[in-house]
Amino acid sequence: MMRVLLALALAAGFTFGMQEPDANQEPVYVFGTSVVIPSGLQGAIYYISHSEKNLLDFDKGKPRGTIYTTSLNIPPQDYKLGFPGISDRLEWFAIDYRGKFWVGDAGDYRFELMADDGAMLYVDGQLVIDNSGLHPPVTLHGKVGLREGTHMIRVSYFQGLKYQVALVLKIARPGEEYSVFNTNDFKPPATFTGPGDAK
Length: 199
Description:
6-stranded antiparallel sheet; 5% helix; 41% strand
C-alpha cells in the first residue's frame, strides 16, 4: 500500500522531503520541498479561515511550516490533487513566498501572474500585480523598471474554497518573451563584488 501511495505522489509531482539522503549525491530540489534552497524562494505556510476578510494578511497568523522552491509553476489542476508541499490541507491555506533575484541588465521587466484563488506580486516592496480575491484561474500582468543588482521578490498566495488550484509566475526580460520565473536564471555572476543591492 505504501508503494502505491508513493507512486501516486510522485506521479502528481509532490515531494514530502522524505527521500533517503545519498552522501554521494546533491539533494534533488522539487517544487514544494522541505529541503532548504539558499538561492530559491522560501514559502511560509499559513492556515486561514473562510471567515477572514483579508485572506492575504499574514501579520496576525502563525506560520505552520516552511517550504522551498526555485519557481512557481502550478498550472490549473483539481484541488483534490493538492498543492506541492502542503500535505494536510486542500483548502483555506496560504503561502507567503519571499526571495532574492539578480538582474544583470537594467530595464523594464514584465511579469505575468496566474492564480486560483488569489495572489499578489511585490518587487522591492512595490506591488506589481494584484491578482487577489476568490476566483477561478486569472492571469494578470505588470511591469517594473529594475536596475542592475539584487532585488527582493515576494508572492503572497492563498487557496480558498475547492475546485482548482493554480499559481504560475512568469517574467520577460527587456526585449524577450515570457518564461517561467526561476531563481536559478537570476543569480549574480561568480565574479560580482561591487554594490548594487536593491534597497
